[in-house]
Design goal:
globular, 556 residues, 25% helix, binds 1-deoxynojirimycin, eight-stranded parallel sheet, alpha/beta
Length: 556
Amino acid sequence: MTQELTSPSPAPQAAGTGRGPGWWRDAVIYQVYVRSFADSDGDGIGDLRGARERLPYLKDLGVDAVWLTPFYASPQADGGYDVADYRAVDPLFGTLQDADDLIRTAHDLGLRVIVDIVPNHTSDRHPWFQDPELARQRYLFRPGKGESGELPPNDWESVFGGPAWTRTDRGDWYLHLFAPEQPDLNWDNPEVHTEFEAIMRFWLDLGVDGFRVDVAHGMIKAPGLPDIGHGAQAQLIGAQVLPFFDQDGVHAIHRAWRRLLDGYGDAHGKHVIGVAEAWAPTSERLALYVRPDELHQAFNFQFLNAPWQADALRSVIDASLAATASVGAPTTWVLSNHDVVRHTTRLGGSLARARAATLLMLALPGSAYLYQGEELGLPEVTDLPDEVRQDPAFFRGGRATGAAGPGTDTEAAPDGVAAGGQDGFRDGCRVPLPWSGELPPYGFGPGGSWLPQPADWGGLTVAAQTGNPASTLELYRAALELRRRLPGLGDGTMSWAPAPDGVLAFTRPGLLCTVNTQGHDVGLPAPGTPLLSSAPVTVDGATAQLPGDSCTWWAI
Ligand code: NOJ
């Protein structure tokens, strides 16, 4: 697609004043899952115009940046993570002009914009894969085993279930760590490097402020593609280094991208960032992705996967902070995204815990990622009929049964597929947002919604919660406002304070945070004056009563 576009809009605060401190170090970044955020044209699918129209809502919520999930030309075999043209907008989501308008409007509002880049695999409809000669050089084709090559080249399994290899009409096999429609690229081929650097420059020239790097741990495979020796491999992801994930060779790619991002930022007087979606077995290995010459941030899935227990949370927080401190990077925090069960449901179906977990997250030093709808306290939708499912893992029998159910601790959710929820698949966290009204589609758009919304979401809409101080939406707004007002809360220091069993207490510049992970009230000496609490806290003289499953920020 070629379209004449005007020059990129300046990033917030970049104009004239130099780059300033790294904005990402304490940024709150809101994930817009475009297909489910807001629909402008009535086809039931969210789009870029719909997202642009709702940007003032995000500004008012108080976030610093938005991350847009893939809106590129794609057959949508995996929600757009199967890209057929990295420089074109899929007609489902709009046009390149719509992307340009969205970036410009965001910048005018003081919001930065991060977009996804998907370098581990393309769509099987990508022109490279469609051309047999190019495909052989730029993807991972191998002859099969067995007398007539009828067996896959090795025992690797797809994250979505089944073998990671598909045989072509020509008789050879290609690797796809995800769906067969997502062939893995051959990163030993320099043309692949050149192309991805050009794609990045294309979007940087359109004004984006960074990239969320999909499967950042996946591009390099162990030499010889060795067998693993046993099945259930998806459960090993994030638990150990595998011949297809977290290979040391990926770091050379990230170093090259950092040079590109820094060079671009230097030339344009701004900071543009890379965020790794990487699954590594330990916080230390994850920290390798954010060394000073690699990406700026990595998602902290260890925090997301921590059970709602004071000791476990404290260990994860300590390990995360220590690992990132060792390389001088900020820590990130995340509780929900489009691949995992929404945290209201995951933390025992308890909105109280979800609200407390969010206040905990927003009190920690570093940057936080929010997933659309968590500010409304949306639960996972757990009764979607089979005929509306779209998650490719559902059709490949991926990580469905045997996964932890709602209310239990989730098992590690490797790149892609979450445990829990309805049956471990990902459609239940992707149901379109309710904005207003009593009936579906609740203001999502002028038509319906691509996944059915529950009949009882009328009380959860943005309109219903706005102005109600007890609502989850107003809790998020208040927390984000305080975060902006308290200097040093983002990137400053943190120290643990003494606390009873099952309670966490820590100080940050200007506040003390208490988290009661027990299901019942706990009394303790009042640490100060309550600033914000996820549940009504009482202070009687010198004693404070922390409600069960609550988090409170205290002025000290
Ligand atoms: C991670 C993305 O978040 C997920 O949605 C996708 O299925 C896989 N990577 C494959 O691209």
